[in-house]
Specification:
This protein is α/β, with parallel strands linked by helices and 412 residues long. Helix content is 29%, strand content 26%. The protein has a nine-stranded mixed sheet with strand order 4-3-5-6-7-8-9-14-13, sandwiched between helices. The chain has a four-stranded antiparallel sheet with strand order 10-11-12-15. Helix 5 crosses helix 6 and helix 7 packs across helix 8.
Length: 412
């Protein structure tokens, strides 16, 4: 299950923790050498709550004078989770991001437009470091300013767009308003999107309208930022750089490993990080191992499925468990519906009530309601309140798209 190289790097990481952070090392209840996966399984999991309780440097494994940068988890509320980075960490980040670009067919001949923010959120910097590594032309626009984004695409000859997964939806809306045709008015050919769960159906819709090939990229602040893995031109799974990370898939309830091909929670152990090395970190992301064999693209890494959702994203309504991405997959089977939707959860007379608000595309008629409603009922097995509204009704987010609005009273 673990290669000789992974075992070597894992033991090196454990020694690094032992040398630099006694608190962290002692909580591992470990002394000796990891010789196989069964040995590794004896190490405890690390969670988001652990990292929050250790704020700011409780799990850091380098001297503050060696830190060059920090980033904060974009999804954290309350006590933040930060990742302090050394020079070696930044170099490692640059290397894996350069690999991601190469896997997505991006070279130094490309012009890369980076739209994630260059702040506490790690995205913008990660895309920037990788683009610098391959010596490509960078347009560091950052988030928003959608009219300017389109202008730069056209005037500067952008060929690669990097963004959170929902941002292309906003660009498509602005393009429609401005009469901007992606296929005719610019040279865009590749989109690298991540930071959110997005369905295969959304991918197909974006690719058709923008005339590009899209690549799903994963990563999080805790593991060192965007670039943990990316899908290739085969588009049948996400390559994770297993000379830098160990991937486990576990049953989120029991913590036991599941078989390849079975869905579970992804657990990550970092092998080359200094500032915040992670040992068996529970990401909450739901995926599965797709392959451990050499891919037709030429890469020979572990390959996991596209992220289905997160353990804390799962909705449990009337005895049915489902993810928002599964609803999205159904909705986008209908060209008469837009890519904007909102699931509203309410408590009415002690029972969960679900309203699904979906925007219509131009030309949608009343007949589409029955088709969509039936499809949703077949999947969920219960009736929900379906509302088809005009385009532009749902409030747009400046960051990650909000897909669920929970109005139910929370009880402790």
């Amino acid at each position: 299950m673990l290669s000789d190289r992974q075992l070597e790097l894992l033991n090196k990481t454990l020694y690094h923790i032992k040398k630099n952070n006694s608190y962290y090392y002692e909580r591992l209840h470990f002394n000796g050498e990891i010789k196989c996966y069964d040995d590794m399984r004896k190490l405890p999991f690390l969670t988001k709550d652990d990292l929050r309780q250790g704020y700011p440097f409780g799990f850091a494994c380098a001297d503050k004078k060696d830190f060059m940068r920090m980033h904060m988890s974009s999804g954290t509320t309350g006590t933040p989770i930060i990742n302090p980075m050394t020079e070696n960490d930044i170099n490692q980040w640059s290397e894996i991001m350069a690999r991601c670009y190469k896997t997505a067919t991006v070279t130094k001949e490309d012009i890369i437009q980076i739209t994630p923010s260059f702040g506490l959120f790690n995205g913008g910097f990660g895309f920037h470091y990788g683009a610098e590594k391959i010596k490509a032309f960078i347009i560091p626009v950052g988030p928003g300013r959608s009219f300017l984004q389109l202008k730069f695409m056209k005037d500067l000859g952008t060929t690669v767009l990097c963004s959170i997964a929902s941002y292309p939806l906003r660009l498509i809306e602005i393009a429609e308003e401005e009469g901007f045709d992606f296929k005719k008015d610019c040279f865009l050919r590749v989109g690298i999107f991540g930071a959110e769960v997005w369905s295969d159906e959304m991918r197909k819709r974006i690719e058709y309208i923008m005339g590009i090939e899209t690549f799903d990229i994963i990563g999080m602040t805790e593991t060192g930022g965007v670039g943990l893995g990316i899908d290739c031109k085969e588009h049948n799974g996400i390559h994770v750089w297993d000379d830098h990370y160990i991937v486990e898939i576990i049953d989120p309830e029991t913590g036991n490993p599941v078989d390849d091909g079975e869905e579970g929670e992804m657990v990550i152990t970092t092998l080359t990080r200094e500032g915040l090395p992670l040992i068996r970190y529970r990401t909450r992301d739901i995926t599965k191992v797709v392959s451990r064999e050499k891919c037709n693209c030429g890469l020979h890494t572990i390959k996991v499925g596209r992220i289905k959702g997160r353990t804390d994203d799962m909705l449990k309504i009337k005895g049915v468990n489902f993810y928002p991405s599964q609803i999205e997959s159904i909705l986008l089977q209908f060209n008469e519906l837009s890519m904007e939707y909102l699931i509203i959860l309410e408590d009415k007379k002690g029972k969960d009530n679900v309203t699904l608000v979906v925007e219509k595309e131009n030309g949608a008629d009343d007949e589409i309601f029955d088709k969509v409603y039936t499809k949703l009922y077949d999947f969920l097995g219960f009736h929900l309140n379906l509302q088809l509204v005009e385009k532009g009704t749902i409030e747009r987010s400046q960051g990650k798209a909000r897909r669920v609005l929970d109005k139910r009273e929370k009880t402790n």
